[in-house]
Amino acid sequence: MEYVIQLGTESDRQELLALYRSQIGREGCPWTDEYPSNETIDYDLEREALYVVKAEGKIIGSVSIEEDEDVDALPFWDPDLKPVAEFARISVSPDMQGKGIAKAMLRFLFEELKDRGFRGVHIIVNKYNPKALKLYDSFGFQNKGECRMYDQDLYGYELVLE
Description:
The protein has helices at 13-21, 38-46, 69-72, 101-115, 130-138; strands at 4-7, 50-55, 58-66, 84-92, 120-126, 142-149, 152-160. By secondary structure, the chain is of the alpha+beta class. It has a single domain, classed as 3-Layer(aba) Sandwich (Aminopeptidase), CATH 3.40.630.30. Helix 4 links the parallel strand 4 and strand 5. The longest helix has 15 residues, at 101-115. 28% of the residues are buried.
């Protein structure tokens, strides 16, 4: 299957919302009808921080570069790893999972972040999301600590971009 990874645009909004909603209720996914929302998409589009994966013109995945001061302030991140980026809202259409799309998105994102001058990346991930944990472990992310935020038990995962 051929696909492209590109910056999301306003014209992607309805498909993105549908993709986000398709994750609700999946194991380890705390998303609701209220999050991620149109406002979340606005925030990501304004910052040119939303990437989509399209196959045959249809969105099958997405990931966002995040800016969250509360996450950045967590005490367990490596203080020497700067500048560091955060990513969030990684999503793959349920019918396309298990085909390497999430790994391809992350490889693409990590190259993009390196090109932007970042030395590392971190993410907070639900402790009860086995697919996400397996994905991040496959890239060699280090579990830097645990926290409770957004009504979830989370791990803080960090990776040096090389």
